[in-house]
Every structure is written in structure tokens, then in C-alpha cells.
Amino acid sequence: MRDASTERLPVFRVEGVTRIFRTGTVEVHALRGVDIQIAEGEMIVLLGASGSGKSTLLNILGGLDLPTEGRVYFRDSDLTRASDARLTAFRRDHVGFVFQFYNLVPSLSARENVALVTEISRNPMSPEEALERVGLKHRMDHFPAELSGGEQQRVAIARAIAKRPEVLLCDEPTGALDSKTGIQVLEALDQVNRDLGTATILITHNADIQRIAERVVVLADGKIVRDERNADRIAPAEVSW
Questions:
Q1: Which carries the bigger pLDDT value, residue 144 or residue 120?
Q2: What three-state secondary structure class fits 63?
Q3: Which of 37, 143, 163, 191 is deepest in the core (most CB within 10 A)?
Q4: DSSP assignment of 4-23
Q5: What are the residue boundaries of the structural domains of the chain, listed by start?
């Protein structure tokens, strides 16, 4: 196993990040002084109970939210001091998002859904290549209603990777899927990580999915309580559902 700290440059450095949400006089501490470094090409699984801070951390890494305190660096750029325009450019040019719900446009084919991203990206792959990478070359002219849940999620992955992002952020991408289709989605994510070298960060409630990752980070009450490398990774097909 490669040591990311010595062989690969960091894409993210998170330093002392706290995120507090305020509703009237009530404060919710979603993150409490988080420090983490994420290297090029790593596959990381984030684990933790609901409310542990996983999604908040992912949103901050993706430039969808800003910390209350602390700093987040993408390479040498301080995202916490970036303007709205720079954050928009960061999300457009460098980050792919995959969520639990596919957010496909029902009236567009798989190819056309992916083209929504490629038409505004700097150096995209073609929609056809992106769909082929997730095993859907034969379904690219089908509409979402004609695709299974797993196929729709793979279209969403193709849309996310078509811009050639340096980072892929996945929030419960298998949460709405059964075991067979969930494994197909994990295989697609694993293939993208290996072939394109895209740093991939995946939130899941299925603890067995951590076994496919290069690194496992566990959060509890807004803090990182475990951060370790996987000595014995398994293939997605071996994951228990």
C-alpha cells in the first residue's frame, strides 16, 4: 500500500475546523476542531452515526458551506477566504458530487444528463466516454424512467466524473439501493478512483463498505475519533449488505 503522506500531494488540508449552526438562541456544534489531510487519488470512507458531522464536513470540502472557525485549503488555495465566484469556479472545475438521490432531469436521456456538465466544463471527457466508464454505454439513449435505480446512480456518477474532477464527494450513494445495484455503484466508484486517480470521499452507514477504502475516518459528535489505513482492502463484490 502506498503511503499517501510521502508519495502523493494533498488535495485538501483541513485545520481546526468548527461549524456551528444557530437557530435563535440554540447552537448546534456540527464540527468541533477537525483536522484532516486528504491526498491525491485516495479513496476514503467516512463513518459515523447521524449527526456526527460527516455531511457537514463533506459540504465544507465541496465548497457548499464554510466553517465557523478554522481553515480549509484546496491545494494552496484557502477556500475559507474565497469569494462566492471563486467557490463557484472551484465546484465547477475541481469537484464532482454524487448524492443518495440521483437528481437526473427526467426529460433528458442519460447522454443528455451527462452533457449538462460537459457543456460547461473546461476539459471534459465526452458523455459517451463517461457513461462507458460506468458500464452504461448500451443505455446512454434511455431516459431515467427506463433505468433501474442502480443505473440512474451510475448516470449520476458519469455526470460527476465527466468534468475530470480532482475530487469526487459521495454522500450515501448506495443508501437507496439494494445489494446487487449498490455493489454495481461501488464498483463504478472504485474503477473511477483507480483509473482516473480521483480522490474519492464516500459517506456511508454501511460499515462493511469501509473495507473497500484505502483509508477509514470515523466521526462522533463533530470530532474525528479514528483515522486509519486499510491493510486488507476488499473488492466491492465482497461487501456484505
A1: 144
A2: coil
A3: 163
A4: HHHHS-EEEEEEEEEEEEEE
A5: 41-64+88-230
DSSP 125: P
pTM beyond 0.70, yes or no: yes
Instruction: Copy the grid coordinates of residue 183.
Output: 455493489
Half-sphere CA count of 204, side-chain side, radius 13 A = 23
CB-CB contact of 191 with 178 (8 Å): no
Q: Give the confidence band of 180 by pLDDT, cuts at 50, 70, 90.
A: confident
Whole-number Cα distances in Å, 89 to 43, 83, 196:
24, 10, 21
Other CB atoms within 10 Å distance of the CB of residue 233: 16
DSSP assignment letter at 210: G
As a CATH number, domain 41-64+88-230 is 3.40.50.300
Q: Which of 209, 102, 199 is nearest to 158 (CA)?
A: 102
Instruction: Say if residues 223 and 211 touch (Cβ distance below 8 Å).
Output: no
Please say whether the dihedral angle defined by the alpha carbons of residues 74, 75, 77 and 81, taken in this order, is positive or negative: positive
